[in-house]
Predict the structure.
Amino acid sequence: MKAALVGADGELLHQDRRATGRERGPDAVVADILGFAADLRAHGVRRYGEPASAAGVAVPGIVDESGGVAVYAANLGWRDVPLRALLTERLGVPVALGHDVRTGGLAEGRIGAGRGADRFLFVPLGTGIAGAIGIDGRVEAGAHGFAGEIGHIVVRQQGAVCPCGQRGCLERYASAAAVGEAWAAACGDPGADAADCAKAVESGDVRARRVWQDTVDALADGLVTALTLLDPRTLIIGGGLAEAGETLFTPLREAVRRRVTFQKLPSLVPAALGDTAGCLGAGLLAWDLLADTTDPSSPSEVTT
């Protein structure tokens, strides 16, 4: 878990992190979130002389943002957690609840790599692949909270089975986890991961280059589908795979360029905020609750 105090302009005033403790079960995770938030509130009082004005929290899985409910998260083991109500009761301030990827995308769009863009698409490449669709400083959740799930665009007909039930989903070919799997099989080292593959590409390893090119081709296919539908001005790539830098971005830009016909090429850039994006985005959600009624000189809100 990451937490922060965030100023009205997105300034990171204080940050902290703790283990999620998911091995102790979903109820313990919720209790830890509430305790972490309360500790951060107390720090704000000690440091700034007054409590945070609002709170934002970003969680993975299926999120009912309007209802304030963490509906389901497989890796945390929870269902239908009224997290907004629980935090509101604990902290005594307004609370916003968001999806982790969309919240990170909000921060990247407003104060990160997409700053100034009226339309952007944020795609983090990690264990899986998701997306955040940015429109005029907001992130679109969709009618049912599933907007931006680019990882489940089918890019290889009758391809590898995905846990979602489809075959050939993008995240089965271009997530950091998928690259690690493919490289481990190619090099014979079961402990190899995506970062190892990127290093091998840079050193000229032919097997690694083959794995990497397959990844780039699948990712470009998915991204072109997305940009055809959404027409973003800026395409922001983040997550662990993006840490490969130009080893990824140079061939990816070329692969996307080769695939477009009538579409306008967006700027394709790396994410700027790293693993602080979710915290900062949660802070922005909290400030949005306060709108223009908050004194910008006051301290921030809690984010977890």
Summary: Confidence is low (pLDDT under 50) at residues 294-304. The two ends are 6 Å apart (CA to CA).
